[in-house]
Specification:
Length: 496
């Protein structure tokens, strides 16, 4: 029998819908539950404290993130997966003193142990804001929310993500909640104590937090060759200087108003011109070179553009106009730094500016490719939020936030490992690319892996009798909470 699908003629021996042709063997799907258990077993030491072993709760949490569709709250995960009210799960996430940082280190170690990821990795500094209804959650404040494009009451996560473009791998490897300056004032002292913010935590800007995290992942041996970031970090000269001090290469986006020099300027501390007055101490440009805004450089006649197909993607080829120039910038201490400026012009005319500290003999094609790598952090954030429950987080405490981020990162890395393993073990029919006339076939997505995992680890369905008891237990818990609040309210009124 011959089927016709759009312009394709499908013969029985070349069925496009045959899972085996796509590298999806039945035995691999059936073993996904065992794979998750083995992954959890490898990580379970991260969830133990001196007095308790919370690893069973960690398995419930990971399974909830990976197999539930929505409303991944403590109560819902407890009811659906553990048959309880979720109180133990909440204590594990909000109060248990296990270190989320240990789970991040485990992820970094796992990445370093993968031969396919030894070279070609990048890390990306970025942040993600979540809108909040009140200031009860750790770090919640009126601050810029990039997703909304305005100042709004939000909680901001500063993150370092890992990507390996050649294998299509991405992961979250470290995260810190951003605490605005007001959170370190005396007015917030009680709130800091109530939410369990460590006394050792001091104010740090987002670039400072990300530089601390990049320093950590480098020290733990995470293999990467480039740091990418958007202009919030790229315009920060201290951040770029910090990366250079760590001997790291970067591709840092910068604003259109950034000042650069097209010839190397001569700097130094100027001589005092008058007998009286203060002696100059700050270095300045002493030569006649003039600084230019990068947006003006893009309009110059001597800026040479070329049309470049950077890479093939599932959305088609990434093609844009690029210009690359060697430029010089000034550091905070007035020293001159040689960098490369890569300018990307999209078809609709939008311009993106990236500074790179690559060697002077770096190939132009390499500079262009490295200037386009920030895309992968968006994939990490999208998967974590839409597929793994990052956005379902409702707890308020510092430790709960730390634990939730670490467990979300663990779930994301489990998905990445599955995709990597299947890519290496289960070859796809090479005829598929020819038949679809594609250079790149679609890779397994996080949603694809979750669909298969949910088939082998389905969320249990309640019988009518079980549902009655679950609802009754929920009503009892709500009644107890209401009684407790009323008791506190009456005591407060009596004391006043």
């Amino acid at each position: 029998m011959v089927q016709v699908m759009n312009d394709f003629v499908i013969t029985p021996d070349q069925d496009f819908f045959d899972p085996d042709r796509w590298g999806l063997p039945l035995e691999a799907v059936r073993s996904l539950g065992d794979d998750l258990y083995a992954y959890w077993d490898r990580c379970r030491a991260c969830f133990r404290t001196r007095t308790r072993d919370g690893s069973a709760h960690a398995y419930t949490y990971l399974r909830g993130q990976l197999t539930m569709e929505d409303r991944r709250t403590f109560a819902n995960m407890g009811r659906r997966l553990a048959g309880d009210d979720g109180q133990g799960l909440q204590q594990f996430a909000s109060d248990s003193p296990w270190a989320g940082s240990a789970l991040f280190v485990q992820i970094q170690t796992d990445i370093g142990n993968r031969p396919a990821l030894k070279r070609g990795g990048i890390v990306i500094a970025d942040e993600s804001a979540h809108e909040k209804a009140g200031q009860h959650s750790v770090g919640a404040s009126r601050q810029h929310n990039g997703r909304l494009g305005k100042v709004e009451l939000s909680q901001v996560a500063t993150c370092v993500t890992y990507a390996h473009p050649a294998t299509g791998t991405w992961a979250l490897v470290d995260a810190e909640v951003f605490l605005p300056k007001e959170w370190f004032t005396a007015d917030f002292a009680d709130r800091r104590k109530e939410l369990g913010i460590p006394e050792t935590r001091i104010f740090a800007t987002k670039p400072e937090l990300c530089l601390q995290m990049i320093t950590r992942v480098q020290a733990h041996g995470l293999p990467f060759e480039l740091v990418a970031c958007d202009d919030l970090y790229g315009r920060n000269r201290a951040f770029r200087a910090g990366l250079r001090a760590l001997h790291l290469r970067y591709a840092a986006e910068i604003p259109a108003t950034t000042q650069i020099y097209l010839q190397e300027p001569r700097t130094g501390v100027p001589r005092r011109r008058r007998a009286h007055g203060r002696r100059p101490t700050r270095a300045k440009v002493l030569s006649r070179q003039v600084a230019h805004e990068v947006r003006a450089v893009a309009r110059r006649a001597d800026t040479i553009w070329e049309r470049v197909a950077v890479r093939a993607t599932e959305r088609g080829e990434l093609i844009a106009d690029f210009a690359v120039r060697q430029v010089w910038t000034l550091t905070d201490t007035g020293e001159v730094q040689a960098e490369w400026l890569a300018i990307r012009r999209a078809d609709e005319g939008a311009l993106t500016y990236v500074l790179l500290n690559a060697p002077t003999d770096a190939p132009r094609a390499e500079l262009i490719e490295q200037s386009c790598q920030r895309y992968f952090t968006e994939r990490s954030f999208q998967d974590a939020k839409s597929e793994l429950g990052w956005a379902d987080f409702q707890a308020q405490k510092y430790r709960a936030w730390e634990h939730h981020m670490a467990l979300t990162a663990a779930a994301l890395w489990f998905i990445a490992e599955v995709k990597l393993n299947w890519r290496e073990r289960y070859a796809r029919d090479p005829e598929l690319k020819r038949q679809f006339e594609l250079e790149v076939l679609p890779a397994l997505s996080t949603a694809n892996v979750r669909d298969m995992l949910m088939a082998v680890l389905p969320v249990p369905q309640f019988t009518p009798e079980e549902a009655r008891h679950v609802v009754a237990q929920h009503l009892v818990n709500r009644s107890r909470s209401t009684r407790s609040r009323l008791f506190d309210q009456r005591n407060h009124e009596d004391s006043t």
